[in-house]
Amino acid sequence: MSDLDKALADIVAIRAQLARGDAFCGFGPSAIAATGVLALGTALAQHAWLDDPTGEPLLFLGGWIATALASAGLIGAEMRARSRRDHVGLTDTAIVNAVEQFLPAGAAGALLALVLVRVSPESLWMLPGLWQVLVSLGLFASVRSLPKGVALPGAWYMVAGLAVLMLASTDHALSPWTMGLPFAIGQFLMAAILYRAREETDA
After folding, report:
1. Are 134 and 109 in contact (CB under 8 A)?
2. How many angstroms separate the first and last alpha carbons of the chain?
3. Which residues lie closer than 8 Å to 33 by C-beta, 6 or more apart?
4. How far apart are CA 159 and CA 129, in angstroms?
5. Angle between helices 176-202 and 127-142 (to 10 degrees)
6. Segments in the chain forming alpha helices (H)
7. Per residue in 8-46, pLDDT tens?
8. What span, in angstroms and rounded, lies between the C-alpha atoms of 127 and 188?
9. Is the pTM of this model over 0.85?
10. What is the CA radius of gyration of the chain?
């Protein structure tokens, strides 16, 4: 390896280390809060139009998967825009570092849903609680690269997920509110923490 190649490799390594060590500022409070509104809207829509979520689990879960994809798109668009402004020169590295920490939890949630639908549809009542637990694990995995206080929504999702599992275990019923309320509260809490962190940074 030539000296130039070695120098370029060192620069890439330094840039990656800087991106890992810096708090990721790409998550905007407005987009996170909007996903909380989406969760409430989905819960209200399913409460009004889906008479028996337990009898139609695929329709119930399909609505929440669509909401999750819309939320991911909303967060991703704002993440890209804010990263270009706040992580000048490190945009791609900062986004990759932030996403790769949460990605295992997201992939586990998708694969878990697929496995339960294929081999154990009678166990689909557990998915809302399990998804919330996985979001909690994803937040805890990302805590070092996000603003201080993110552990609080992580703890909320863990407690909410376990509570939802306990409540649903009595009748194995699916409810729009056991999805909508925990996610809305968690996202609003996350948005408040990000907003406070943004104000402290600006100050």
Report:
1. yes
2. 46
3. 187, 188, 191
4. 10
5. 20
6. 3-21, 29-49, 57-86, 91-119, 127-142, 151-168, 176-202
7. 565 555 554 444 444 445 567 899 999 999 999 999 999
8. 22
9. no
10. 19
